[in-house]
C-alpha cells in the first residue's frame, strides 16, 4: 500500500538527518540525570532545562512546575526537579490534542559495573547506540523531537496539538508528579488522548502496542532479636536469631514452581476466557530465544508460549528481592544481626485490590510467625503499592498507532500486555479520563536499568517515523 505523500516527505527528511539525531541523543545521554543520587539532583534539573530549550526551538511553549521538596533518610530535604509542561504554539481547539509523557532521569550507572564503554558517553557499535538513557527514556523523547522537527522542515504545520509532561524523578517513584497532575487537572480538559513511549517491544523484531500492565505491592518483613549485633561464638545457640526467623517466613511465600502460597491471593484473578488462548497464540514470541537470552541454567517455569506470556502478564507473581541488615560482603563475618528486613513484592493484575492484597499478606505472615513460636519482634507491612493498568486496545487512539506502525514496518503490530508496573499510566488515566496508549519504540534486549543499555539505530530512526505517522493518523480521526 502506498504511503500518503506527507509521510513520504517526513520519512525522507528523517532518513536525511540521522547524524543530527545521534548528536542530539549524545548530548542528552551525557547529562547524568540520576534521580536516585542526591549528588546528581542538579543534573536532573539541567536535563529539564536542556529539554525545555530543545522543545522551544521546535515551537513548544514550555513551563516548569515546582513540585516541592524530597525528604531524605537522614531527615534532610532536597528540592525535586521541576516538571516540564509544554504546549504547541498556536494551539488550535479544532485539532485533536495528544499528551506525551516521558521521563528524563535515568538509573545509576558506572563503567565499573560491567559496561563495555562509558555509560554517559553515547557509543555507536554494531548498529546500536549504547548509553544510559538511550532507550529508557531519553531516546524515545528525542524521537518525538525528531518527528516534530520533520514536520517543521518540510514546511507543514503540525496537524494536531501536542502537550508534554516530562519529569526527572520516574526512576525514583515519580515523587510529586501525581499531586501536580491533580492540581492541574483542568489542563487536560481539551485533551483527546495520552501517549506514553516508556515501554519496550516484546521481542526484537516484531513491533507491538501494549494495553495493560501489572500492578505492584511491595512488602517489608522486619525482625528484631537484640539491641545490638552479637558475636555468634558467644551468643550463638542461646538466642532466637532474627535472620533464622526471617528466612523461615520468606520461605513460606512462594514454592519452587512459582505458586504464591498466601491463601486467597488468586481469588480475584480473571479466569481465562474461551477464546483467550487464540489471542496469545497469534503473538510473535520465540520461546527458545527468550530462554537463551536469560542465561538460566535450567528449564523455565513454563515451556509453552501461551503459558509463558500469560504468567508474565495476566497472572500475579511473587518475587523475593533482598535482605537488609544481614552481612553480604565478600569474606566471613560471624555476626548475629540485631535486626533484618526482608523485601518482596507481588505483581498484581486487574480485579486485584491493593488493599485486599495487603491484608491477605500481613495476616498470613502474622499467622506464620505465631505458628513458628519465636519471641522476637516482627512486623510486616506494605511499603508502597500501585494498581494494575488496563486499557481498551480497540480504541481509536490504539487504531491510529496501529496504522502508524504499519506505515513504517509494513507489519501488523502485536497487541500485548506488559508484566511490569508504570504507575504514571494510572495517574494519567484517572486524572484525565482519557485513553492512554503505550507505544514502545525499543527492543526487549535494550537493557534498560542494566549494563550496556542501548537502542538500535533502526528503532531510533524508525521510531521517529512511527511518531510522525502517529501524529498524522490522529489528525485523520473524525
Automatic annotation (TrEMBL):
Keywords: Hydrolase, Metal-binding, Protease. Residues 212-372 form the Peptidase M20 dimerisation domain. InterPro entries: ArgE/DapE_CS, Cyt/Met_Dipeptidase, Peptidase_M20, Peptidase_M20_dimer. CDD domains: M20_dipept_like_CNDP. One of its GO terms (biological process) is proteolysis. Transmembrane segments: none annotated. PROSITE patterns: ARGE_DAPE_CPG2_2. One of its GO terms (molecular function) is metal ion binding. Pfam families: M20_dimer (PF07687), Peptidase_M20 (PF01546). It comes from the Eukaryota. SUPFAM superfamilies: Zn-dependent exopeptidases (SSF53187). Belongs to the peptidase M20A family. This is Peptidase M20 dimerisation domain-containing protein. It comes from Polypedilum vanderplanki.
